[in-house]
């Protein structure tokens, strides 16, 4: 009789311990699975997103003098970037743009953030309505006043963290 009671207690205790272990491990496994799924989605986005800066130029003529080529009355730098990835890049205005002389560059705010104060940048898609694969984006950095000649740096950081940079001379 004692063996039966001890066996019954052992069965009850093992069921209780099993339920406790299940209630502890299962939520952690589900949360881990959701985290891994979210990470995979972000990694897929980064793998499919790829851009490169293909050209940059300031408004200067062949002699190095300012020439207002876009007719806005301010010195501008144009940067062309191509989407060479497999997915459309959205939220372009949310990109971070860094620009300035080599070794002395700063983040330049998008025109929506500045209220018209210089410097700022804006964009237009050149050969499509969205920045789809194989499409070129033209970024115009409005400096307000002519920039001195020299070597300049520009870096684009997409909202998903992917970045590309480029050195050029004015």
Structural class: alpha+beta
Topology as a string of helices (H) and strands (E): HEEEEHEEEE
CATH topology of the largest domain: Immunoglobulin-like
The CATH architecture of the largest domain can be given as Sandwich
Distance linking N and C termini: 97 Å
> Nearest-angstrom radius of gyration?
28 Å
The count of DSSP E runs of length 2 or more, i.e. the number of strands, is 8
Domains, number: 2
Tell the overall outline.
Answer: rod-shaped
Count of helical regions: 2
Strand order of the largest sheet: 1-2-6-5
Helix content: 25-40%
Residue stretches low in confidence (pLDDT < 50, at least 5 long) are none
Average residue pLDDT = 85
* Major sheet characteristics: 4 strands, antiparallel
Could you characterize what this model shows?
This protein has 170 residues and is α+β, with helices and mostly antiparallel strands. The chain has 2 domains: 48 residues; 119 residues, Immunoglobulin-like (Sandwich), CATH 2.60.40. Helices cover 30% and strands 31% of the residues. It has a 4-stranded antiparallel beta sheet with strand order 1-2-6-5. The protein has a 4-stranded antiparallel beta sheet with strand order 4-3-7-8, with no helix packed on it. It is rod-shaped, with a radius of gyration of 28 Å.
Question: What topology emerges from the helices and strands here?
Answer:
Blueprint: H1 2-48, E1 51-58, E2 76-83, E3 96-101, E4 106-108, H2 111-114, E5 120-125, E6 136-142, E7 151-157, E8 163-169
Antiparallel strand pairs: 1-2, 2-6, 3-4, 3-7, 5-6, 7-8
